[in-house]
Fold:
Amino acid sequence: MADRSAYGTGGLAFDKSRMTWPNEVNVFLALILLIGIFELLGQLLPYMNNQSLLFDFNTKRDGTILNMARIKIIILQVSIIGIIALGSTQVIISGGIDLSPGSIVGASVMIAMSFAQTELVNGNPNPKAIFGPWAMDLPVIVPILVALACGIAAGATNGFLIAYTRIPPFIATLGMMVTARGISKWWSKGAPVSFPTEEFGLIGNGLGGWMPVVIFVSLAALFHIILRYTVYGKHTYAIGSNEEAARMSGISVSRHKVMIYAIAGMLAGVSALVLSSKNLTAQAGMGLMYELDAIAMTVIGGVSLAGGRGSIVGTVLGALIFGVIISGFTYLRLDAFYQEMVKGVIIVSAVVLDQWRQRRAAART
Amino acid sequence: MKIKTTIAAACTASLLSTAAVGQTVGFAMSEFNDNWLTVLRLAAADHAESIGVNLIIEDGQSDAARQLDQINNFIASGVDAIMIIPHDASGAQAMTDAASAAGIPLVYVNRYPINLDTLPDDQAVVASDETESGTLQTFAVCQILRASGAEGKFYILQGQLQHPAGIQRTKDIRDVVSMDMCSFMTEVDLQVGNFYRDQASDLMTNWLSSGEDFDAVIANNDEMAIGAIQAIKAQGIDMDDVIVAGIDASQDALLSMQAGDLDITVFQDAPGQAVGGLDTALALARGEDVARLITIPFKLVTPENMHLFMSEN
Structure:
């Protein structure tokens, strides 16, 4: 505040340029800063032997100066939760919250994988078969449709509860979180469902292992366009900014909410497909706490829990920050304890910084 | 539940005449999500059905406090005996006290409670000696590496940081490596995969991205070993060049071994623990004397003897 007088009244022009600086730029700078810290530690810590996080100047194993293997895993390990975060972003922008996608993933992997099993494993009958021979070696489109249907059904249920019974999203999706986890455990009485067909395995392992990244980035691009340039997107922001005003201006808020939650559920279904395919198994505990990581990614990416503000680009950057933290800690060979502590600190600092920036911007106008 | 018990008793009493028929046993599991525990749970349910016992199984959801509540619920509904897989072995004293005060026999399954030495007469433990598993596993890795003349660099994939089996198995790995015969082995890094396949796969990919040479991966369970194998294969590395070891001898693991990917696993007898636990609980309910500690042995599984275990877990 003290240095503001230095600009006099002309300071307004300066402030304005600061205000139009999109929040995503800040998140991007935070990402670069974080990478810089890891690179610096790689040079400073004696046991690291001057290794680098993203570069590979000495051996050039990939034929480039980049360590492509690490860049790949940084994105790959957040792709599956990232897909969920794309849905959470829309829900949170609309002023809601979704606690259920982790459990929807749990239920969807079990049900979808039951339709993706192969009859023979190394020449033995599949020891984890759920259904009879009729459900074996089905075309890969069947489990895909089953997973999407599970996700949409669960998501739409959330939406209906929120829009028409008027219970808070926190409660409705909390109920779905518990119920869907129950379904995932009940489906095969807790036993894992394994050994899918080769085609099904490609969803998570195709394109040399890049498939989850490709799916995540394509969906991110798609929903970026939808949120920015379509009526659906504009209504989502409008509802999140001021639900009453949105209703007054003729937006069918209830119907729109059902759609938002159904899309979030569908994205959980996609995430379930990629997850179970990548691991070639479905287990009742899959997706546990994914919703919280997804919410954290969106929040780091600058989506406001109060609604009306945020973007897909921010969420993708938030996901990348998560990926850099996970890989950075393995690269520094630090234990998982520290990883969780730092993750927590980063989530809270992101919001504190964002609030501070907003207040400062508000004070200037 | 009462009606169900009565019907079950009426139906089976005419067919069978063992003392167990119609009795109710409460079984508080630490969690339902774990694969190996699922095998144990299904074996317990099967055995209960075959001897006409009504078994009530609860999911502790990895929460020691919730488990204590479940035990108190069992006590309130007047079960004949209680079996428990404690999520946290150090929380066992409160469980022992609760059951003991109500005069209901209690059997700890799978894990040693912290108060093992002071258990009352109507309580017992049916478990495997956890120090065996990691030792058998790591010693087998050591022998293979020694025979091949490899350098002996290895990664460790640990289970949940607070999980007693994970802690013990990791300690066993380090104990074996500190022995003269295996001291040529060096630990490159340890990371926590929480017993999950997906997390282990991502950790392994992170390790592979450092370009560091390694000869073996020692995982606290089979799921993490399989995750590591999937990551290693995705990089196009020949599985003959890497030794991967797990623990549990799960179905998925044995098929992976059959395909030539997994080299070592250790069989922990889930059905043995389930049946032993239930029989011990019923014996205590009849007022019989049983040993305070009944151990079910671990067995090393390699491609040579894996056919013996194909239908076990």
